[in-house]
């Protein structure tokens, strides 16, 4: 592993008098799978909003791949190589699976929806769309409307759309939320496969997934990172057990 691709120092975010992020320091290293865990209301989604440009920091620094990105637009941050998914499925239900992915593939080329009639003949777009379909195991569902698919399939589709910009860092916000056990296992394995060779930062409440998938884990509690370490280090950290995991996890 090389140095950090993402480096956060003294990050703060306030909404009026309420401070949500209270001086976060965190590094994510190139090529690692890094999980962010913590109780509800800890600030995990707020942190992802700050990293992806959907919120601007009140103070502090966010450096991605050597560049300061705090306060930049989501589009500018995405162009630098950071892409994210959201807690709520962010697909277009009235479009087919193929059309959803194709739209995501078109964005890095600066192409818009109105130009689709010309893009049908563009081999680059079609090849990349077909590659992503295969990557997330949705080739057989290419002509299905996204809104007609099972929830786990929609999440797979969203992961494909997140990867369409060929990002250096992928942020996945609770990709297994609301899934049954079998769907969770399938999606966890899919995430493991499609992020090979990439850097992953994931927010997830399923501790089985977190501990089996992650190289390192950071624990966010009340807007501060109280611990970062390997799964074994986090599992046995007394501060973490007291604040979040509970004794039953270490047992």
Structural notes for this entry:
There is one protein chain. This protein has 251 residues and is α/β, with parallel strands linked by helices. The protein has two domains: 1-81 and 168-251, Rossmann fold (3-Layer(aba) Sandwich); 90-166, no CATH class. Helix content is 37%, strand content 25%. The chain has helices at residues 44-52, 74-80, 97-106, 116-119, 123-135, 151-163, 181-194, 207-213, 231-235, 238-245, 247-250; strands at 4-15, 18-29, 33-37, 59-64, 67-68, 82-84, 169-173, 199-203, 216-221, 224-229. The strands form two sheets. Strands 6-7-8-3-9-10 form a six-stranded mixed beta sheet, sandwiched between helices. A four-stranded antiparallel beta sheet has the order 2-1-4-5, covered by helices on one side. The two termini are 30 Å apart.
Please report the total strand number as a whole number: 10
Biggest sheet architecture? 6 strands, mixed
Tally of separate domains: 2
Helix content: 25-40%
SSE string: EEEHEEHEHHHHEHEHEEHHH
Beta percentage is 15-25%
Output the strand order for the largest sheet.
6-7-8-3-9-10
Q: Any idea what the CATH architecture of the largest domain is?
A: 3-Layer(aba) Sandwich
The count of helical stretches stands at 11
Give the quaternary arrangement of the chains: single chain
Q: What Rg do the Cα atoms give?
A: 18 Å
Mean pLDDT metric: 89
CATH evolutionary superfamily of the largest domain: P-loop containing nucleotide triphosphate hydrolases
